[in-house]
Amino acid sequence: MNTPKRYTITAALPYTNGPVHIGHLAGVYVPADIYARFQRLKGNDVLYISGSDEHGVPITIKAKKEGITPQQVVDKYHTIIKKSFEDFGISFDNYSRTSAEVHHETASGFFKKLYEDGKFIEETNQQLYDAEANQFLADRFVVGTCPKCGNEESYGDQCENCGTSHNATDLINPKSAITGNVPTLKETKHWYLPLDQYQEWLKEWIVEGHKMIGSRMYWDK
User: Which residues, at least 6 apart from 175, have a Cβ–Cβ distance to it below 8 Å?
Assistant: First the structure.
């Protein structure tokens, strides 16, 4: 059996719509930090990485509520979160942010390559639309009554009361989280990547090729 000497350890990227709290630290970053320090003490080559997730609906919702731009939100909380990790002594080798140019280039590069190779399935679907806000409503931009438990404050993707996952169009009496208006249905184009076509090599690479430890740590052979 080959004993790995190089370890890449990653931790979940926190959303920059608020500060981290003790639950975040205890549940994710401290355990990964302990493991990274342990491997360093053994003389192994370790790279412990994470960063601020600056792309998400919670950020835009926060910005609208505070009357500021999403950029102002992420700049504020990235600074706060990064300092919190430093104050707690979390030993990241690299703590970045998804607004960095390298992330944009890498993500768009993946998308363009898949698109040019014809890997996406294009479909036109109906999505909830807020006419006053002049935008389509992603999952967290919609609230309504859960079709399973009757919780009247269910999100468009998941009910926090019963844990059920659903689509925004499944909600009873949906309303826009932006304006409070009743949304309408409007056609929009989506791209879907059929992951079932890649199941075998993904299974080999993730499960067999790279030993998984927890959900977000792996080592390179």
Answer: 142, 143, 144, 181, 182, 183
Residue 205 — φ and ψ, nearest 5°?
-70, -45
Domains of the chain: 6-115+194-220 (3.40.50.620), 121-192 (2.170.220.10)
Query: Which residues, other chains included, contact 26 with Cβ-Cβ below 8 Å and sequence gap of 6+?
Result: none
Q: What is the pLDDT of residue 61?
A: 83
Q: How many CA atoms lie within 13 A of 154 on its CB side?
A: 27
Give per-residue pLDDT as tens, 127-182.
999 999 899 998 889 999 999 999 999 999 999 999 999 999 999 999 998 899 99
CB 194 within 8 A of CB 121: yes
d(CA 212, CA 189): 36
